[in-house]
Amino acid sequence: MAAPVTDRVITADEGQWLVMEERSAVGAARRQAQSLAHSAGFSDERVAGVGLAVTELGTNLVKHAQRGLLLMRRVRVDDEVTIEVVAVDRGPGMADLDAALRDGHSTAGTLGVGLGTVERQADRLRAVSEPGVGTVLAATFHGDRQAPPGRSVAGLVRALGSEPTCGDQFAARQEGDRVTLMLCDGSGHGPLAADAAYAAVRAFNDGPTDPPEVVVRRVHTALSGSRGGAVSIADLHYDQGVVRFCGVGNVAGSVSTESTKRMMVSVPGIVGYHLPKVRTFDYELPPDGVVVLHTDGISAKWDLSGRRGLLSRDALLIAATLLRDAAGHRDDAGVLVGRRPAP
């Protein structure tokens, strides 16, 4: 199998979203987090630190949040593995995040207590909070206590109901200022849809960084005999100020800034079953432009303009906010965000 021709291949485990409503859920989350850290080769000390941070996050969600969810997963950038923990809620929010990160700080009903502990244990902690809307926190843990850079690419998926796996999956790669995104929505939901989506991920990762329409055709071949699915490829060239987009089916793509949101064109069809004539369309990509791909489990009516500078933040915070605010409950949901890489 040929190695990908790329600087950085970015993939992530699907993970599991845990509902944090009862105190017993905190212990389950801690054990799951420690198991993930152990499987990633972390030392016993780091495993304990990850467990402590997750305990604090989970406890805060149970005590103060409304509809709090916690995700834990492994993220791989080439051969490097980190543990990523994402906490989202529709709680009261925090007006002063810096104060909330100070040990012991809390205002009535907020999530402040314990976040100082999370910040000390994590190698990177980022958060966005809107009073009256809710909070998103993302903590990254490296086995060697190395602070990873801010993320220019982040994807999140959530399976429908009690399905064991999600039919929406993503992959990405970064080559300098160039970022390439792929999101697949396997037809239907459940294991067969997930099989198709994971086949798309493998086809994307195992080949070179070809033009988007070439990658779509390669994925089409890989999905032959499966349920097939909808696939979109976005090739972001910030040095040229252009994003090249090729989409088949209902995986939507857009370019957003603080003042604009421009949808990109997908053509009808089913990759792996009925592939129409595919074309790549070019769109302007401003230096501050954020590219978002999402499946039809996410409402297309989302709007992040004016949300306390959210579009200037880490890609994972953007993805988690969209999943919280715009995901429905009748299908799998997947979102993939790409932004300009940090210098």
UniProtKB/TrEMBL annotation:
A Gene Ontology molecular function term of the record: ATP binding
SMART domains: PP2C_SIG
Superkingdom in the source lineage: Bacteria
Keywords assigned by UniProt, alphabetized: ATP-binding, Nucleotide-binding
Database matches in CDD domains: HATPase_RsbT-like
Entries under InterPro entries matching the protein: HATPase_C_sf, HATPase_dom, PPM-type-like_dom_sf, PPM-type_phosphatase-like_dom, Ptase_RsbX
Every PPM-type phosphatase domain range: 152-340
Stored PANTHER family: PHOSPHOSERINE PHOSPHATASE RSBX
Protein name: ATP-binding protein
Organism the protein comes from: Actinokineospora guangxiensis
Lineage of source species: Bacteria, Bacillati, Actinomycetota, Actinomycetes, Pseudonocardiales
